[in-house]
Amino acid sequence: MFTGIEHFAIASPNPKRLAEWYVSNLEFEISFEYAGNYFIEAGNGSLIEIIPAEGERADAAMRTPGMRHIAIAVDDFDAAYGQLQQQGVTFTGEPYSNEGNRLVFFTDADGNLVHLIHRARPLPRTREAAVA
């Protein structure tokens, strides 16, 4: 009955600007737009909806309750990191390795936390194993 995540939403004070940031910096495409809302699509088909924000942004840190980051998978970590550096993306730290994975955190145009990840091995998935 439940098949998975279709999309998640980010509330932005300027949805068009944020959508265009993902297009220019992370190779997303705007796949649908209506009434000031933008659906952006990653190369693997993942969707993010960017909606108009209302009110002030709440302070959040890496481990405060709620959604904390968006992980962007890359097949060539060094090339992706270098491209983001050339584009002037603001990083929160240096790249590092964790259990063979390469990561670096940065912020998008609204200050949302995003990170690149290149996994040495894909995460185990119970549903794929059940199908095989």
Q: SSE layout and pairings?
A:
Elements: E1 8-12, H1 15-26, E2 29-34, E3 37-41, E4 47-52, E5 70-73, H2 77-86, E6 90-91, E7 96-98, E8 101-107, E9 113-118, H3 126-131
Parallel strand pairs: 1-4, 5-9
Antiparallel strand pairs: 2-3, 3-4, 6-8, 7-8, 8-9
Features:
132 residues, alpha+beta, 2,3-Dihydroxybiphenyl 1,2-Dioxygenase, domain 1, five-stranded mixed β-sheet, four-stranded mixed β-sheet, 9 strands, 21% helix
Q: What fraction of the residues are assigned to beta strands by DSSP?
A: 25-35%
What count of structural domains? 2
H/E series: EHEEEEHEEEEH
CATH architecture of the largest domain: Roll
| Top-tier CATH class of the largest domain | Alpha Beta
Instruction: Give the overall pLDDT as a whole number.
Output: 91
> How much helix, percentage-wise, in residues?
10-25%
Please compute the radius of gyration using only Cα atoms. 16 Å
CATH superfamily of the largest domain: 2,3-Dihydroxybiphenyl 1,2-Dioxygenase, domain 1
Principal-axis shape equals: globular
Sheet with the most strands, sense and barrel status: 5 strands, mixed
Q: Do you know the CATH topology of the largest domain?
A: 2,3-Dihydroxybiphenyl 1,2-Dioxygenase, domain 1
Query: Which parts are unreliable, with pLDDT below 50 for 5 consecutive residues or more?
Result: none
Structural class: alpha+beta
Helix count, per DSSP?
A: 3
**What is the number of beta strands?**
9
Distance between the termini: 20 Å
Description:
The protein is built from three helices and nine strands; from the N terminus they run E-H-E-E-E-E-H-E-E-E-E-H. By secondary structure, it is α+β, with helices and mostly antiparallel strands. The protein has two domains: 1-54, Roll (2,3-Dihydroxybiphenyl 1,2-Dioxygenase, domain 1); 68-132, 2,3-Dihydroxybiphenyl 1,2-Dioxygenase, domain 1 (Roll). Helix content is 21%, strand content 33%. The mean pLDDT is 91. The chain is globular. The strands form two sheets. Strands 5, 6, 7, 8 and 9 form a five-stranded mixed sheet that branches. Strands 1-4-3-2 form a four-stranded mixed sheet, covered by helices on one side.
